[in-house]
Write the structure tokens for this entry.
Amino acid sequence: MTSKRGTIDWTKRQAPSLAELEAIADAAYSRLPAPFRKLTGDVVIRVEDFPTDEVLDSLGIESPFDLLGLYSGVDLARKSVLDVSALPDMVFLYRRP
């Protein structure tokens, strides 16, 4: 809902559900140009309500509302075919209910 001035009235809005945010992320990813998507490899997009306390502590962040997303993995500049990783590269999106 927008006000008369064209701004959104956020007081009547709720955060999307986890499933809705995942669908939004998938749709946005699918609209990226193919050459860019190819560079992302097998990156996994995970949607969660909030970051863990461990993540917040490691980044020196006090409020879970201050972090909306996080990349976890090895960036392309440092990646090697010799790397053996137990976990895939991941992008975390935090829903902030």
Remarks:
- Residues 37 and 91 are 14 Å apart (CA to CA).
- The chain is about 30% helix and 15% strand.
- The radius of gyration is 17 Å.
- The mean pLDDT is 87.
